[in-house]
Amino acid sequence: METINAWSKYTDAEKKKIFSFAEDYRKFISKCKTERECVTEAVEIAKKAGYKDLNDIISSGKKLKAGDKVFAVNMKKAILLFNIGKKPMEEGLNILGAHIDSPRIDVKQNPVYEDRDLVLFDTHYYGGIKKYQWVAREMAIHGVVALKNGKILEVNVGDNPGDPVFCVTDLLVHLAQKQLEKDGEHVVEGEDLNLLVGSMPEKKRASEKISDEKELVKKNLLAILKKKYGFEEADFLSAELEIVPAGEARDCGFDSSMIMGYGHDDRVCSYPSLIAQVETDTLEKTGVTILVDKEEIGSVGATGMTSRFFENTVAEVMDRAGQYSELSVRRALANSKMLSSDVSSAYDPNYPSFFETKNVAYLGHGVVFNKFTGVRGKSGSNDASAEYIGRLRKIMDDNKVTFQTAELGKVDIGGGGTIAYILATYGMHVIDSGVAVLNMHAPAEIISKVDIYEALKCYRAFLRDGGNV
Ligand code: MN
Ligand code: MN
After folding, report:
1. How much distance in Å is there from the Cα of 408 to the middle of ligand 1?
2. Residue 284, CA distances (Å) to 18, 89, 92, 361 in order
C-alpha cells in the first residue's frame, strides 16, 4: 500500500497557509534553542490565548470550570497546558505530548582552562550525537548562571546580530590520516569536544621580558565575563550553559518546501501541539498538552516525563474543578488517550539500505504514526492497540489529515525511545506519532513544511475528537 504526497492535495491558496504556519515555526526554533527558552515562549503564547498560571488559581483559591484554561510550569523546563472540558475529567483527557530538549553540548561545572594562549570550555555532550558532526562549525551559548545571592543571569551569545560565535575545532585533514582510520564513534572523542572561547591576553606587558604571570588569556576572558555578564569563574558551578548551533533555521530546497535547522527533534512536534492546544475553543473532554524535558537522556529527572509532575498537576486541576478524589485521578489517567509525538526517521535516498521501504516515513507524506518503536523484537516499545489505531484512522480521514505509518528503520538495525511507554503505565491508550526528519540529531535537521502542517491538523482533530476513540 502506497502513501500519498500531502502537497498534492493543496491548492496554491492553501499552500500559502502552510508556508505561513511553517514560517511561524521557523522563527520559533530559531529563537528557542533550549528547553527553558521553549517554556518561556510557550508561556507567552499561552497567556495571549487566555491561559492562567495554575499556581495563581491555587493560591487565590479560585475554582476551574469548563472552558477555563491553565498552564503549569515545572522548574522552567517543562510545561503542561489544560483546556478544561465540559465532561468530568474522570472520563479521560485528550493528551498531546512532545519533548522540548534537543541534543547539544553542555558546559561542564568546572570548564575554563587555558592551553598555549587559547582558552576553552570543557564540555559533556547531551543526548545521542555523532560527535564528528558537531566540530568546525559556528556555535552559540544559551543558558543561565545562578548566583549565590539567588539572582539568575541569562546568557545568550552567538545568535544576535554582531555577536561572536564559538567553535569546537577539528584536526586539519593534512594531519588526519590516523584520525580518519578510526571508526566513526571515535573520530572525535567526547572528552575532546572543547569549545574555543578566547585567545587574547589581559594587558600589555610591562617590559620586553616574558612575564611571570600565567594564564593571562584566561584572566582576560574571566574579566570579560564579569564585566559583560556579571559572573565569575566559581559561578560556573551553578550554571546551565548549553552549546547549540548558531544561526537561524533556513528554508531548504529551490521550492522552499523544507526547513533546515537545529532542534526539529522534537520542537517540530512541540510547536504544532502547543498551537493546536492554545487555539482550541471549549472542548467536550479536557485537552492537555505536555511539553517535557530530558527525553533525549531517558526522560529522567524532575523535569523529565518519569517525574510525578504531570500526575500531581492533574490532581491539582481536578481539585480546582471540584472533581478530585484519588480514585477519580486514577480513572482520569486510565481513561485518557494520548498522541505521544516525536520525530520519526525519514527515508534517506543516500542510505536506502537502512530502511524497509514499505514501513518507513517519507518526507512530505504527512504525520507519522508508529504503532511500535523499539528494536530487535520490539524491545522497549509501547505497542499501541489495533483498536485505538483503527479509530484514529477514522479521525484522520474524517478531518482530511494525510498520515503514514512507519518504523524507524529495518528490524535489527536500531531504534529509539520516546515518552509513550511512560504514559502507557497508567493504562491509557498511547501511540507514537510525529513528523519525519532527515539528519536526525545532527546540528541541522530537515523537515517538510507540509508534514508539520498535517501534524497541526492532526492535533486539532485529536483534541476535539480523540476522546471518542
Ligand atoms: Mn531525539
Ligand atoms: Mn525525540
Report:
1. 12
2. 28, 10, 11, 32
88-93 average pLDDT score: 98
Q: Whole-angstrom Cα distance, residue 237 to residue 258?
A: 40
Q: Looking at the CA of 440, which ligand is closest?
A: 1
Would you mind telling me the total number of residues written for the chain in this entry?
469
Q: What is the pLDDT of residue 287?
A: 98
| Dihedral sign from CA coordinates of 206, 210, 215, 218 | positive
Domains and CATH numbers, the chain: 6-102+262-468 (3.40.630.10), 104-245 (2.30.250.10)
**Helices in 343-425 by DSSP H: which ranges?**
386-398, 420-424
The mean per-residue pLDDT over the stretch 45-70 comes to 98
User: Which ligand has its closest atom nearest to the C-alpha of 98?
Assistant: 2
Non-local (6+) Cβ contacts of 33 within 8 A are 102, 140, 142, 159, 242, 244, 262, 263
Give, as one character, the DSSP assignment of residue 347. P
CB 73 within 8 A of CB 290: no
pLDDT (0 to 100) of residue 458: 98
Confidence of residue 408 (pLDDT cuts 50, 70, 90): confident
Q: Which amino acid is at 129?
A: I
- Cα-Cα-Cα-Cα dihedral sign, residues 227, 230, 234, 235: negative
Tell how far the Cα of 339 is from the centroid of ligand 1, in angstroms: 17
Identify the DSSP state of 227: I
Secondary structure string (H, E, C) spanning 79-143: EEEEECCCCCHHHCCEEEEEECCCCEEEEEEEEEEEECCEEEEEEEEECCCCHHHHCCCCEEEEE
Tell me, in angstroms, the distance from the centre of ligand 1 to residue 212's CA.
49
